[in-house]
Amino acid sequence: MNPPVWLFDLDNTLHNADAGVFLLINHAMTDYLAGRLNLSRDDASAIREDYWHRYGATLAGLQIHHPEVDIVEFLVKSHPMSQILEKLMPIERTQTLLGRLKGCKAVFSNGPSFYVQAVTEHLQIRDHFDLLAGTDDFGFLYKPNRQAYLAVCQRLEKTPQNCIMVDDNADNLYTAKQLGMQTVWFSHKAHDLPFVDCAAHDMAVLEMWAAQQGWLEAV
Protein backbone atom coordinates (compact mmCIF):
# COMPACT_ATOMS: atom_id res chain seq x y z
CA MET A 1 0.00 0.00 0.00
CA ASN A 2 1.81 3.10 -1.20
CA PRO A 3 0.90 5.83 -0.60
CA PRO A 4 -1.77 5.19 2.05
CA VAL A 5 -4.92 7.10 2.91
CA TRP A 6 -4.81 8.37 6.51
CA LEU A 7 -8.18 8.58 8.27
CA PHE A 8 -7.78 10.62 11.44
CA ASP A 9 -10.29 10.81 14.23
CA LEU A 10 -10.53 14.35 15.66
CA ASP A 11 -11.19 14.43 19.41
CA ASN A 12 -8.28 13.18 21.52
CA THR A 13 -6.42 12.34 18.31
CA LEU A 14 -5.76 15.72 16.67
CA HIS A 15 -6.45 17.77 19.81
CA ASN A 16 -6.77 17.07 23.52
CA ALA A 17 -10.56 17.08 23.99
CA ASP A 18 -10.22 15.86 27.59
CA ALA A 19 -8.63 19.21 28.48
CA GLY A 20 -12.06 20.86 28.60
CA VAL A 21 -13.85 20.46 25.27
CA PHE A 22 -15.66 17.24 26.16
CA LEU A 23 -16.84 18.75 29.42
CA LEU A 24 -18.35 21.71 27.57
CA ILE A 25 -20.07 19.46 25.05
CA ASN A 26 -21.40 17.13 27.74
CA HIS A 27 -22.84 20.03 29.74
CA ALA A 28 -24.44 21.52 26.63
CA MET A 29 -25.93 18.14 25.66
CA THR A 30 -27.34 17.68 29.14
CA ASP A 31 -28.87 21.16 29.14
CA TYR A 32 -30.48 20.57 25.75
CA LEU A 33 -31.87 17.14 26.68
CA ALA A 34 -33.21 18.45 29.99
CA GLY A 35 -35.11 21.25 28.24
CA ARG A 36 -36.22 19.31 25.16
CA LEU A 37 -37.35 16.15 27.01
CA ASN A 38 -38.58 17.93 30.15
CA LEU A 39 -36.15 16.13 32.45
CA SER A 40 -34.08 17.06 35.46
CA ARG A 41 -30.40 17.69 34.73
CA ASP A 42 -29.50 14.48 36.59
CA ASP A 43 -31.90 12.40 34.50
CA ALA A 44 -30.77 14.10 31.29
CA SER A 45 -27.13 13.43 32.15
CA ALA A 46 -27.92 9.77 32.88
CA ILE A 47 -29.64 9.38 29.50
CA ARG A 48 -26.73 11.05 27.71
CA GLU A 49 -24.22 8.70 29.32
CA ASP A 50 -26.42 5.63 28.83
CA TYR A 51 -26.84 6.26 25.11
CA TRP A 52 -23.15 6.93 24.70
CA HIS A 53 -22.19 3.65 26.39
CA ARG A 54 -24.89 1.59 24.67
CA TYR A 55 -24.63 2.93 21.14
CA GLY A 56 -21.26 4.68 20.89
CA ALA A 57 -22.89 8.11 20.52
CA THR A 58 -25.64 10.02 22.32
CA LEU A 59 -26.89 10.97 18.87
CA ALA A 60 -27.56 7.29 18.09
CA GLY A 61 -29.69 6.85 21.19
CA LEU A 62 -31.74 9.90 20.30
CA GLN A 63 -32.33 8.58 16.80
CA ILE A 64 -33.57 5.28 18.22
CA HIS A 65 -35.57 6.39 21.24
CA HIS A 66 -36.53 10.02 20.56
CA PRO A 67 -37.40 10.51 16.87
CA GLU A 68 -39.19 13.71 17.85
CA VAL A 69 -35.84 15.39 18.58
CA ASP A 70 -34.42 17.49 15.74
CA ILE A 71 -30.94 15.99 15.29
CA VAL A 72 -29.48 19.08 13.62
CA GLU A 73 -30.75 21.32 16.42
CA PHE A 74 -29.31 18.88 18.97
CA LEU A 75 -25.88 18.99 17.34
CA VAL A 76 -25.85 22.78 17.09
CA LYS A 77 -26.98 23.30 20.69
CA SER A 78 -24.53 20.74 22.06
CA HIS A 79 -21.49 22.29 20.36
CA PRO A 80 -21.09 25.89 21.66
CA MET A 81 -18.31 26.75 19.24
CA SER A 82 -17.12 30.05 20.69
CA GLN A 83 -16.50 28.37 24.06
CA ILE A 84 -15.04 25.23 22.49
CA LEU A 85 -12.48 27.12 20.43
CA GLU A 86 -11.24 28.90 23.56
CA LYS A 87 -10.59 25.51 25.19
CA LEU A 88 -8.76 23.84 22.30
CA MET A 89 -5.42 22.30 23.25
CA PRO A 90 -3.22 21.09 20.37
CA ILE A 91 -1.36 17.80 20.61
CA GLU A 92 2.39 18.24 20.37
CA ARG A 93 4.01 17.56 16.94
CA THR A 94 0.68 17.19 15.14
CA GLN A 95 1.30 20.01 12.68
CA THR A 96 4.78 18.73 11.81
CA LEU A 97 3.70 15.11 11.37
CA LEU A 98 0.73 15.96 9.17
CA GLY A 99 3.06 17.90 6.92
CA ARG A 100 5.40 14.93 6.50
CA LEU A 101 3.00 11.98 6.13
CA LYS A 102 2.84 10.64 2.59
CA GLY A 103 -0.58 10.05 1.08
CA CYS A 104 -4.08 11.45 1.22
CA LYS A 105 -5.36 12.55 4.63
CA ALA A 106 -8.92 12.94 5.93
CA VAL A 107 -10.63 13.71 9.21
CA PHE A 108 -13.29 11.10 10.05
CA SER A 109 -15.22 12.23 13.12
CA ASN A 110 -18.45 11.39 14.93
CA GLY A 111 -18.83 15.14 15.52
CA PRO A 112 -20.84 17.38 13.18
CA SER A 113 -19.15 18.83 10.11
CA PHE A 114 -19.31 22.44 11.34
CA TYR A 115 -17.40 21.37 14.45
CA VAL A 116 -14.78 19.45 12.43
CA GLN A 117 -14.24 22.41 10.12
CA ALA A 118 -14.00 25.01 12.89
CA VAL A 119 -11.65 22.95 15.07
CA THR A 120 -9.23 22.09 12.27
CA GLU A 121 -9.26 25.70 11.10
CA HIS A 122 -8.54 27.01 14.60
CA LEU A 123 -5.71 24.49 15.05
CA GLN A 124 -4.29 25.60 11.67
CA ILE A 125 -4.24 22.02 10.33
CA ARG A 126 -7.20 22.20 7.93
CA ASP A 127 -5.05 22.57 4.81
CA HIS A 128 -3.39 19.21 5.45
CA PHE A 129 -6.64 17.33 4.73
CA ASP A 130 -8.30 16.34 1.49
CA LEU A 131 -11.60 15.65 3.28
CA LEU A 132 -13.18 16.83 6.52
CA ALA A 133 -16.02 14.44 7.34
CA GLY A 134 -18.49 14.73 10.22
CA THR A 135 -21.51 12.58 11.02
CA ASP A 136 -23.88 14.67 8.88
CA ASP A 137 -21.63 14.07 5.86
CA PHE A 138 -22.42 10.34 5.93
CA GLY A 139 -26.10 10.20 6.79
CA PHE A 140 -25.78 10.82 10.55
CA LEU A 141 -24.04 7.49 10.93
CA TYR A 142 -21.20 7.16 13.41
CA LYS A 143 -18.20 5.01 14.21
CA PRO A 144 -18.11 2.05 14.76
CA ASN A 145 -20.99 1.59 12.29
CA ARG A 146 -19.44 -0.15 9.25
CA GLN A 147 -21.46 1.96 6.82
CA ALA A 148 -19.87 5.14 8.15
CA TYR A 149 -16.38 3.88 7.20
CA LEU A 150 -17.58 2.73 3.79
CA ALA A 151 -19.27 6.08 3.14
CA VAL A 152 -16.04 7.96 3.85
CA CYS A 153 -14.06 5.59 1.63
CA GLN A 154 -16.59 6.14 -1.14
CA ARG A 155 -16.23 9.91 -0.87
CA LEU A 156 -12.45 9.52 -1.13
CA GLU A 157 -12.83 7.00 -3.97
CA LYS A 158 -10.60 4.58 -2.07
CA THR A 159 -11.04 1.06 -0.73
CA PRO A 160 -10.68 0.24 2.99
CA GLN A 161 -7.57 -1.78 2.14
CA ASN A 162 -5.87 1.49 1.11
CA CYS A 163 -6.62 3.17 4.44
CA ILE A 164 -5.01 3.60 7.85
CA MET A 165 -7.41 4.51 10.68
CA VAL A 166 -5.92 6.60 13.51
CA ASP A 167 -8.28 6.76 16.49
CA ASP A 168 -8.21 6.96 20.28
CA ASN A 169 -11.11 4.47 20.56
CA ALA A 170 -10.18 0.79 20.22
CA ASP A 171 -13.75 -0.20 19.34
CA ASN A 172 -13.56 2.02 16.27
CA LEU A 173 -10.32 0.35 15.24
CA TYR A 174 -11.81 -3.13 15.59
CA THR A 175 -14.36 -2.30 12.90
CA ALA A 176 -11.69 -0.64 10.75
CA LYS A 177 -9.56 -3.79 10.88
CA GLN A 178 -12.54 -5.98 9.99
CA LEU A 179 -12.97 -3.88 6.86
CA GLY A 180 -9.34 -4.36 5.89
CA MET A 181 -7.79 -1.13 7.13
CA GLN A 182 -4.52 -0.80 8.99
CA THR A 183 -5.01 0.67 12.44
CA VAL A 184 -3.25 3.03 14.83
CA TRP A 185 -4.49 3.23 18.41
CA PHE A 186 -3.56 6.77 19.43
CA SER A 187 -3.94 7.02 23.19
CA HIS A 188 -1.88 7.23 26.36
CA LYS A 189 -3.48 3.88 27.28
CA ALA A 190 -2.74 2.23 23.92
CA HIS A 191 -1.25 -1.27 24.01
CA ASP A 192 -0.86 -4.22 21.68
CA LEU A 193 -4.10 -5.81 20.49
CA PRO A 194 -4.70 -8.32 17.67
CA PHE A 195 -6.48 -5.68 15.56
CA VAL A 196 -4.00 -2.85 16.23
CA ASP A 197 -1.02 -2.39 13.92
CA CYS A 198 0.52 0.46 15.90
CA ALA A 199 -0.06 1.43 19.53
CA ALA A 200 0.99 5.10 19.65
CA HIS A 201 1.12 6.94 22.95
CA ASP A 202 2.01 10.19 21.19
CA MET A 203 2.84 11.67 17.80
CA ALA A 204 6.52 10.74 18.15
CA VAL A 205 5.62 7.02 18.20
CA LEU A 206 3.28 7.43 15.22
CA GLU A 207 6.01 9.32 13.37
CA MET A 208 8.51 6.53 14.03
CA TRP A 209 6.06 3.85 12.84
CA ALA A 210 5.24 5.80 9.67
CA ALA A 211 8.96 6.22 8.96
CA GLN A 212 9.51 2.46 9.35
CA GLN A 213 6.80 1.84 6.74
CA GLY A 214 8.36 4.34 4.35
CA TRP A 215 5.40 6.75 4.62
CA LEU A 216 7.27 9.80 5.86
CA GLU A 217 8.69 12.58 3.71
CA ALA A 218 12.33 13.46 4.34
CA VAL A 219 12.94 16.66 6.28
TrEMBL record:
| Gene3D superfamilies linked to this entry | 1.10.150.450, HAD superfamily/HAD-like
Cite a single Pfam family from the UniProt record: Hydrolase
PANTHER family found in the cross-reference section: HALOACID DEHALOGENASE-LIKE HYDROLASE (PTHR12725)
Instruction: Check the record and name the NCBIfam families matching this protein.
Output: HAD-SF-IA-v1 (TIGR01549), HAD-SF-IA-v3 (TIGR01509), Pyr-5-nucltdase (TIGR01993)
Top-rank lineage group of the source organism: Bacteria
**Source taxonomy:** Bacteria, Pseudomonadati, Pseudomonadota, Betaproteobacteria, Neisseriales
Q: What is this protein called?
A: Pyrimidine 5'-nucleotidase
